[in-house]
Amino acid sequence: MVVDELARLIAWPTVSNRPLEALAAHLATRAEEAGFRVERFAPPGAAEAGKCSVVASIGPVDDVAGGLCISGHMDVVPTEGQPWDSDPFRLTERDGVLYGRGTADMKGFLAAVVVALGRIPASAYRKPVVLVWTHDEEVGCLGSAAMAQAWAGRPFPAACWIGEPTDFRILRMHPGHVAVEVEVRGRAAHSSRPDLGLNAVEGAADIVVAARQLARDLAGQPAAIPELERPWVALNVAEIQGGRAVNIVPDRCVLKIGYRPLPGQDPLEVHHALAERIAALKLPHPVEPRVLRVSPAMLTPLGTPLEGALAEHAAAPGCGRRRSRPTAATSRRSAWRRSCSGRARSPWRTRPTSTSQPRSSCARSTWWRRRCAGGAARRATPPDGAPRRIRRSVRPDRPNRRAGGGAAGA
User: Among the options 5, 75, 105, 227, which is catalytic?
Assistant: First the structure.
């Protein structure tokens, strides 16, 4: 069952700063058992760190027209410093809710795909299906970027379904992500004579203030993109490192800033705006802002065949159209009707959906409901009669508003 497979996947603590080769090997084995041809991709240095991406394909090799790519990532965000009431790497059920790091983002999708495709005979595929399981998505889509370079020139399906949790909405666009590092240099001196030095941390503090004001200005300039929950460039001052000892004037401080360019926007536009604001400060410190990596925003045209295929199972068939968030009771009733209506014959067909091109960390949902396949499966209904659902992961940047009493969602 999907829950049993999910429990196995959750048990691997594939936080982005840890190896995930054991999970990759397991997914590769499951794909081979289902008749898929499996390849592994590891960029330079990744193999030594225990990282790789898995690509499994089945069906015609050269005729990719009408084929489908199904994509997801194997890594998860950290759990340190979060108020978990249970082991985040052991799937735990309480009151019909499954808890564990990655249940929604996005090992639940991986488990559903693995189980569903294992039920389809290899001889049944008339068009190619390609599974792409990547590493290090949570830290900049590093695995998918390396895989795209390695795959260049080879046939690949044009349609891609990325199973990030979206509250069962079809999302055809997603902001990108740009990481910027700002290095501020000063002059060291003993803290008893600070006038002889130049404090790099103080210079960085002025830049933080300027970046915060830029973030506020960007939030006040929303774009006309109703499909996005936050139609403006979100900017975050994420890291600051500086100083060596409390009695030394720091001679170096490094800031890391991330922002999310919108679809259709030059991904470096905000970087240039930030550099102009830093220059306007006229700091006595040498300052060097530089771009670390760029993940472009994504936009898929309306009305693709994949959108039409997914619309029957989506909570909002209109691709990305805004809708009021349902109440918990309404969500439970609608999820149960869909799960037991007989339409959901394959579990992976009813998972959260995205039609963006790879690679995306699509919009996160507050929680992800699990539907049974083809009717009232044995474990689909908990004792209280409410449909089973899976609560999303608690992320450091987005606390779980539904978690009460210190309980961390999964």
Answer: 75
User: Which pTM was predicted?
Assistant: 0.68
Residue 62 is among the residues annotated as catalytic for this protein: no
Task: Identify the active-site residue in 137, 138, 227, 251.
Answer: 137
Taking the mean position of all CA atoms in its chain, how far away is CA 253? Answer: 29
pLDDT tens, residue by residue, 238-288: 999 999 999 999 999 999 999 999 998 999 999 999 999 999 999 999 998
Q: In what order do the strands lie in the sheet with 287-295?
A: 234-242, 252-260, 177-185, 287-295
Distance CA 200, CA 288 (A): 12
pLDDT tens for 39-74 read 998 888 887 889 999 999 999 877 778 899 999 999
Report residue 217: phi and psi, to 5°.
Answer: -65, -40
End-to-end CA separation in angstroms for the chain:
19
For the question of residue 137 being annotated catalytic, the response is: yes
Rounded-to-integer distance, Cα 334 and Cα 338, Å: 6
Whether the pLDDT of residue 220 is over 50: the answer is: yes
Helices 269-281, 200-219: inter-axial angle, 10-degree rounding:
130
List the one residue out of 256, 261, 209, 272 whose CA is nearest residue 232.
261
> Residue 28 and residue 22: Cα distance in Å, rounded?
10
Rounded CA gap, 389 and 369, in Å? 4
Residues 111-122 have pLDDT tens digits of 999 999 999 999
Most distant CA pair in the chain, distance: 78
* Residue 347 pLDDT grade (very low, low, confident, very high; cuts 50, 70, 90): very low
Q: Give the whole-angstrom CA distance, residue 370 versus residue 336.
A: 9
Q: Give one DSSP letter per residue of 211-258, joined into a string.
A: HHHHHHHHHTS--S-TTSSS-S-EEEEEEEEE-S-TTB--SEEEEEEE
101-158 pLDDT per residue, tens: 999 999 999 999 999 999 999 999 999 999 999 998 888 788 888 888 888 888 888 8
Look over the chain and give the mean of its residue pLDDT values, rounded to a whole number: 79
- What is residue 111's three-state secondary structure? helix
d(CA 358, CA 298): 9
Distance of CA 190 to the CA centre of its chain: 45
Distance CA 185, CA 172 (A): 43
